[in-house]
Specification:
The complex is a heterodimer of chains A (303) and B (275).
Chain A: E1 4-15, E2 18-29, E3 33-37, H1 44-52, E4 59-64, H2 73-77, E5 80-83, H3 95-103, H4 112-118, H5 134-146, E6 152-156, H6 164-179, E7 183-188, H7 191-197, E8 200-205, E9 208-213, E10 226-231, E11 244-245, E12 250-255, H8 258-272, E13 277-282, H9 286-302
Chain B: H1 3-19, H2 22-43, H3 55-85, H4 88-93, H5 99-129, H6 135-162, H7 168-183, H8 196-204, H9 206-216, H10 220-223, H11 234-254
Classes of the chains: A alpha/beta (303), B mainly alpha (275).
């Protein structure tokens, strides 16, 4: 049996005439990693801030661990962990002091030194926060989100600004949290992050959820497409297939019949003596699906 | 962790943050001392005509009040507004910390700093400038001081709530505190030449009541043959408490936890500049 850690029904948030969130529905099960994807200004952060209890909703119903975040108070906050989009820590405190300071009010506290080890800041334990690099500060922020040993963790763009190796480390930390049975609500700009971490993803655009599913099945009807890519430094109109030209002769063909397309393309190439450098056939990635969904939504909205 | 321990530890953390920031410590502790040195140099440490007190005996207590008001009013207004810009208040609201515990930590720390900076001022006065302290007025001075800094702490939090962001907070505190200090017998001893309406205006605000009733405890003419009860100036305490109560109601009304639109996190945190 699965239990919902978060249930959101017809959530709306308006600022005067601006409708930032327009009827969002989703649920996150206990122990699940759920990613909310969407462009800037789509309503992701507003939705998450409502779930964290930082903002009041304009309408709809929200249940987080059995609480209404607006009224849950101390008992509610004792059970959630929040990693904010921007790192906010008193810059004059040391790493250890900052973790102790923010850990104080929780009924369950993780050991500060152990947390420092988990996020890989052992060398910086007694360093002032202001001397940390941007990536180190993000890792401290992650530690602050975990200090109360929460059941449910909100990660708002947790790896923005990380270098690739720091990102991998953060993913390992998040994977370990999943292994401990924690529920995680993640927002991110990085599709590889969602692909790697999330059990399920939802794409939000213009304040509405436009697609929902697992990273491998979301946008099901778009999954049948194969993408053929190659380099051809000539006029795309001479090709026997409908190709979209990119920069430096990069060509892209989307097809539901890859065998036919490849046959036409390669037999033409062989006859014409064209090399078709870098020829690949790929299934659409989460990023391809995402860009298509969001692109259509934005074009549709502008029309 | 008990609530009492929580408050105590909050005060400790706020103290750490304060003393590690040289700019804040300078303006709160060193700046008023510099006024003290300069005033006693300019006027000489002699009796101020018609007052019965020496320059140091007058300025020691009034600048102690000024230092204490800087530690509470100025520091709380600026520090809290900047903490809000930086998202620190929002971060605190993400944890189970009761909001009042966090604010109690800030206030408690400010009060501790007020005692330290006023204590240094009076200590320097006693040790190097012959400032006298009178046993009969000590209790009254202490109670007046505690009420005064509590009221200015509340007003500091009110100003933090009224400041759109951390950059406007220093301007607002200076624009309110400095002119008042000039007309409230803090920087300038009371003068017979000053128009009466000026003192009427000053009496509407809490600073003059604080400075004058605290200063009275250090005046040899007032303390001679007086009783302990003479140093509880009920009118002054009443005006201050009224400001405190109204200030507290308004502070609760205007206090904000989330960064406000248009405010930016400070790059170099808590550099307090006076204009």
């Amino acid at each position: 049996m699965t239990v919902a850690a978060i249930t959101v029904e017809n959530l709306t948030k308006s600022y005067g005439d601006v409708h930032a969130v327009r009827g969002v529905d989703f649920h996150v099960e206990e122990g699940e990693v759920f990613a909310l994807l969407g462009p800037n200004g789509a309503g992701k952060s507003t939705s998450v801030e409502i779930l964290e209890g930082h903002r009041k909703r304009s309408g709809g119903a929200v249940d987080v661990l059995g609480f209404d975040p607006e009224t849950g108070g101390r008992e509610f906050r004792d059970r959630i962990g929040v990693v904010l989009q921007e790192t906010v820590v008193e810059k004059e405190l040391t790493v250890l002091e900052a973790i102790q300071f923010h850990g104080d009010p929780y009924s369950k506290r993780r050991d500060a030194e152990e947390l420092i080890e988990i996020v890989g800041l052992e060398e910086k334990t007694t360093a002032r926060v202001k001397t940390l690099s941007g990536g180190q500060q993000r890792r401290l922020e992650l530690a602050l989100g975990l200090v109360g040993d929460p059941e449910l963790i909100f990660l708002d763009e947790p790896t923005t600004g990380f270098d690739p190796s720091a990102r991998r480390q953060a993913w390992t930390v998040i994977d370990n949290l999943r292994a401990l049975g924690k529920t995680i609500l993640l927002t991110t700009h990085y599709m590889d992050e969602a692909q790697n971490l999330a059990d399920r993803v939802a794409v939000i655009a213009r304040g509405e959820i436009i697609a929902e599913g697992t990273p491998d099945t979301i946008g099901a009807d778009r999954r049948d497409v194969s993408i053929v890519r190659f380099v051809f430094n000539g006029d795309a109109s001479v090709l026997p297939v409908d190709a979209v030209a990119g920069s430096n002769g990069a060509m892209e063909v989307k097809t539901r019949e890859p065998v036919e397309t490849l046959y036409a393309l390669t037999s033409w190439a062989k006859q014409s003596g064209v090399a078709l450098d870098g020829l690949t056939v790929a299934r659409p990635t989460l990023e391809d699906i995402y860009l298509e969904l969001v692109g259509e939504e934005e074009n549709g909205g502008d029309a | 962790m008990s609530t009492f321990t929580l408050v105590r530890r909050q005060i400790k953390y706020q103290n750490l943050v304060f003393w590690r920031n040289p700019a804040a410590a300078f303006f709160t502790v060193v700046f008023p001392l510099m006024f003290f040195f300069v005033f006693t140099l300019i006027f000489g440490n002699e009796e101020i005509p018609g007052s019965g007190v020496t320059t140091a005996q007058f300025y020691g207590p009034t600048l102690a009040v000024f230092a204490a008001v800087s530690a509470t009013y100025t520091n709380l207004a600026i520090g809290t507004a900047i903490a809000r810009d930086d998202g620190l208040l929002k971060r605190v609201r993400s944890t189970p910390m009761p909001p009042w515990v966090y604010l109690a930590g800030r206030i408690g720390s400010a009060i501790e700093i007020a005692f330290i900076s006023a204590g240094i001022m009076l200590g320097v006065g006693v040790l190097f400038y012959g400032v006298n302290i009178y046993a009969v007025s000590l209790l009254g001075a202490l109670i007046t001081f505690v009420i005064g800094i509590a009221v200015f702490a509340v007003l500091g939090l009110l100003l933090a709530g009224l400041s759109p962001n951390g950059n406007t907070a220093p301007a607002l505190t200076n624009a309110t505190l400095l002119p008042l200090a000039f007309i409230s017998d803090v920087f300038i001893p009371p003068s017979a030449n000053a128009p009466a309406w000026l003192s009427t205006v000053a009496d509407l605000f809490p600073l003059r009541h604080f400075a004058v009733s605290f200063g009275k405890a250090f005046n040899p003419l007032e303390t001679t043959g007086a009783s302990v009860g003479d140093f509880f100036d009920l009118k002054s305490l009443g005006v201050m408490l009224l400001w405190g109560v109204v200030g507290a109601i308004l502070a609760l009304r205007f206090f904000k936890w989330n960064p406000q639109a248009g405010s930016k996190p400070s790059k170099r945190r808590r550099g307090r500049t006076r204009t």
